[in-house]
Amino acid sequence: MNHDFHPAEFPLCPSANRRYLQDASGHPFFYHADTGWRLLISSPSQID
Question: What does pTM read for this prediction?
Answer without folding.
Answer: 0.55
